[in-house]
What we know:
It comes from Quercus rubra. By secondary structure, the protein is of the alpha+beta class. It has helices at 156-161, 265-268, 356-412, and strands at residues 9-13, 19-23, 29-33, 43-46, 51-57, 64-70, 78-81, 86-91, 97-102, 106-111, 119-124, 130-135, 141-146, 150-155, 176-179, 185-190, 199-204, 208-213, 218-224, 229-234, 240-245, 250-256, 261-262, 270-271, 280-286, 291-296, 301-305, 310-315, 324-328, 333-335. The strands form 7 sheets. A 5-stranded antiparallel sheet has the order 3-2-1-29-30, with no helix packed on it. A hairpin with a 7-residue loop joins strand 10 and strand 11.
Amino acid sequence: MSSSFSHEIVLTSSPDGPIIAYDASSGTLLAHFTGTQTPRQGLTLVGNSTLIAASHISSATASGSIHLYNWWSSTVFHHLPLPEPVAPLIASLDGFYLFAGGLSGNIHVLSLPSASGNVLKAFPAHHSPVSCLKISDDGSLLISGGEDGTIVVIPISQLIGASSSTDENASNFILHRFVAHADSVTAITCGIGLCNSTIIISCSLDCTCKFWNLLLGTHLGTVEFPCTVFGVALDPTESEFYVAGSEGFIYKGTMKVESRQLVSQGLQLVKWVQKHGGAIMSLVMMNEGQNLISAAEDGSVWVWEAVTGQVIMALQNEMGSTSHMVVATGRGARMGNSGSNESTGNWSLGLSGIGRELSLQVKQTQEMEDMLTVVAKDRSKAIDMLESAIEMYERLLQLILKEAKKGTSNGGE
């Protein structure tokens, strides 16, 4: 492989089976996380800890919930029930809150960490199901896309701080709401921009990618494709973007860095030669922009060389389908359809303990558990000794009282 990877782990989810973790450098399957049937956009990584969150829709009852996993157990360690089925998930950068997009158009806000995973509120963001969620580079804004083609931008501080949200007062918390596409918004990614003009890119079932000024909510440009589009990623320099086509091809486009304006589609849009056997559901930049990884609906997961557009590795997926993908690194985590790494601050959740560091963390956790077990045993032993001492002193006191009574009776005679 021409490029070296730095402790990167790829996680893929499926509507039919487990979440699977791979070593990005070798393609080795590292772990399965079972018990979750995950819809599109329903997989995310949480905060600076080691939590994996996945949307789950019960095949028996169609009820919705969120499953939480840690890295050293393959089974769900916490189940968070929700009032409706949800699909897209994203966590706040500090890991204290989890946002879930519901079928009703509500965004559910959950507090983490919590013994109960309390649903703090449901915010009525869209008039149709929420289809995707992203968080701005600085962690201050939640950006949501809906099946009605709208994009909503909400300050997270107001969303969390509001006591309640109804359709009447929802507009008070929304920074921008605009009709972005003629069909469902399938993915959103975000750049850092220049001169305070942060850019977001949205893609849609209407076969377009559109570029927006995040702060102003204004339209910058549109690129049309011959198929529906499910994912988009930016390279770290934000001069090139990659688009996931429903027919299995990846398209590469170019922007003018100086003005952040789109270069002519006809001159700069390139279709890579190799093709997945199904629609590409997710794209993520890796290895500081040297590689791109794609996950397709047919279960294939490929690592590409970004410069040449050639596949350099195929990960073996045991499941027949893929619904979403995220990449965790030793420095942070990147969500599907994201293109930036932690050096630019985009989608970095600070997830530590990946690769060799993960093994060390598991070992440290086990050692801590052993220490706690020893402490618990010592505490139990100390309590037993204290109880024995109390019992001994009680007996001694009884003997003293008995002798005192005997002395008193003898003196009376």
